[in-house]
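Appendix B.2, paired examples.
Example (i):
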Amino acid sequence: MPASPHGYPAASPASTAGTWLRTTVSAHPVPELHVVCFPPAGGASGSFSALRRAVGPATLCTCVLLPGRESRIAEQEPWDPDRIADHIAEALPVRLRETRAPYVMLGHSMGGLFAYEVTARLVAAGEPRPMRLVVAGSEAPSGAAGHRLDTADPVGVLRELRGADQEVFDHPELLRIAATTLQADLRMIRRYRFAGAKIDVPLTVLLGREDPLVGAPAAAGWTELGTSGTSVRVLPGGHFFLDPHYPELLAEWRREAQATGHRPDRARPV
């Protein structure tokens, strides 16, 4: 497949679904819920291992795999955030048509920006929209390009935010890979430009009460972007606060899917 100037594959929905998306296997012909996950800066599918343990047999989990990590580690930056969002928005409908389950978009930190950008593209293209967009520990897009993290000290950032297991800090090569990926992602965030799109999708903003990076002021701009209602919730924990809360969040999303009858293959009336 030909590569783009940015080092990731040229757009082709059927082929890029396998490049950009990693989906768990469900024993149910039509799963009750599908959670599409966008990792934080420096993260990969492992960022959502606690979610995958909590989902149960009737829920699917798809993790977006960005360039420069796991099987894509050889794909070097510069990575353009708009082009990445374009590719994911082209690949994701293929997977949604395969799974035919109501779905939630979940983005953590930097992943919140990509979850929002991809959702905006799906809505604009008339594709099946998510039941809900959930952003966690994520600065509002209007201020994201001015991200405060220091790209010169990625190891310090990992330590400050507790963004890696102790095993990573104990192994120099693992720490080097984690720091290099985080540094590249932070540079990418600074290339992000907010276009101001509003989305007709229910929006939930989750914040960690002890998060030193993203508090209520940094997240406030999210409330201006969701035209179908926005809720803000503060949960115990720091920047990486999601893991213990997955069971309750999944239960809420399942109840919402059952109550609304929302399915991505069912078009919303115009």
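Example (ii):
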Amino acid sequence: MGNTKITFIGAGNMAASLIGGLCKQGVHAHNINASDPGEAQLEKLKSTYAIHIFTDNQLAVKGADIIVLAVKPQIMRQVCEQLAVAVTDQQLVISIAAGITSDSLIRWLGVHTIIRCMPNTPALIQQGVSGLYATKAVSTQQRKQAEQLLSAVGLAVWLENEQLIDAVTAVSGSGPAYFFLLIEAMTEAGIKLGLPADIAAQLAQYTAQGASNMACQSTLDAAQLRQQVTSPNGTTDAAIRAFQQGGFNQLVETALRSAASRSQELAQQLSE
């Protein structure tokens, strides 16, 4: 990202992950600022990455090309209204807060160069996926910069419709928990089948990891991969039929629709 200057407002886990990913990509620490009221967290970032740290948000954003808003949604309005006097339309603002619309950010900050981003928790280990939406005021160069920034912690995909952020939240933002739930259930079932708890957990965890890697690396889609390991009337076929008879696909759709609906509700509440 060359000499692009980036300021993080909020120095929590996601900000720390992004900063770590940027440094691994070769972004110079002197081009990165972080601001947060928590001095212990700031000192940890400074000692780890040698970045500049601030407790004053207005000072931190001065001269920044990109401002990453990495604070909790509940305090976003307060933070933005305090920053409004210091931010200009020449700066790109990227929000990673769930539920805060671009219209709200524009209203609170007074600038139009806004990108909303919905990352997920595997970004903490540089294996995340993020959905991005940019307002019309964002330039092609700024879109490229945002994509490079989020690519530091995984895959970045663009959305042309901001409302699709709710679907991204349902599929990938909340998605890791669904897989954790399946791993939990498989582990418990393995224990009931007689496996020691630690072995059941390892079998479930590493099976999930291996299947995920295959799905990401293969040219075949998930349905084709499933069919390859499902011999007619075999053990896998018996398990798959049990899932389907229990309404598995419909249950997943209902769950994701519930997550998307709740995302819409929270967005409305937080934007008022």
